[in-house]
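Dear H.,

Thanks for agreeing to be a second pair of eyes. The structure we're designing against is below in token form, covering all 238 positions.
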């Protein structure tokens, strides 16, 4: 990764990464740490937009598995992403950075409704844009929302911050013998059924030729290190 070649990127953060050491909810100190890393990348002159998951509050698929109507459960998950977005906005603005939340579900008392042209204009004015409420439709994950927004915003790359420092052939937390892919193609991710990203997101990124960089958001300065040519990560492209 070369920061000089990147004008605009999308950072996808899992909701679980905002829990810190807790098993549920939002840990403010963790959100502050992630916000500080985002601010460091902004200082490089790169335009940034964000998509944040909701797994720390509510996961629609789990709700459906427990017997809830899938569409209703997914809408609950979308609302949870707005809560996470508000927490991140608060942390970023306390650091002195202007932000805008744009929601795919209209809630004008809380944030803006998503508008592509307005979102692009915000980033051109060096504002950080946080896309909330997924795609606004049930049955789609926030991974897919990230790939969709990155395509609409004409982003140069998608950075996905997860619990691990890249893509492995099996869960490295459970299996010490897991092998890491430094580089892998979109087709290989799909054919090997590697679940670090959902298939719809990978297909959309492939169709729009947007590389996906998977790294650990738990590693201090993980986002910034990649842009400085350091760090540990996996790249999906080609």
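And this is the sequence the design step returned. I haven't edited it by hand at all.
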């Amino acid at each position: 990764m070369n920061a000089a070649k990147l004008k605009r990127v999308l950072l996808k953060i899992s909701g679980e990464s905002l829990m810190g050491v807790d098993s549920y909810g939002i840990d403010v100190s963790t959100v502050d740490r992630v916000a500080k890393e985002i601010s460091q990348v902004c200082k490089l002159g790169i335009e940034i937009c964000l998509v944040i998951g909701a797994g720390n509050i509510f996961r629609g698929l789990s709700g459906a598995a427990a017997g809830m109507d899938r569409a209703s459960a997914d809408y609950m998950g979308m609302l949870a992403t707005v809560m996470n977005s508000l927490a991140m906005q608060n942390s970023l603005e306390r650091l002195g950075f202007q932000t805008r939340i744009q929601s795919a579900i209209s809630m004008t008392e809380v944030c803006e409704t998503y508008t592509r042209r307005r979102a692009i204009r915000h980033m051109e004015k060096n504002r950080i844009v946080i896309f909330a409420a997924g795609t606004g439709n049930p049955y789609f994950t926030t991974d897919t929302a990230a790939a969709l927004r990155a395509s609409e915003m004409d982003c140069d790359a998608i950075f996905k911050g997860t619990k691990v420092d890249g893509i492995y052939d099996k869960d490295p937390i459970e299996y010490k013998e897991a092998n890491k892919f430094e580089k892998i193609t979109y087709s290989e991710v799909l054919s090997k059924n590697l679940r670090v990203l959902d298939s719809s997101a990978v297909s959309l990124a492939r169709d729009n030729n947007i590389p996906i960089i998977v790294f650990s958001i738990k590693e201090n300065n993980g986002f910034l290190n990649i842009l400085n040519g350091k760090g540990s990560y996996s790249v999906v492209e080609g």
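Two observations from my side: The radius of gyration is 17 Å. The chain has a mean pLDDT of 93.

Warmly,
E.
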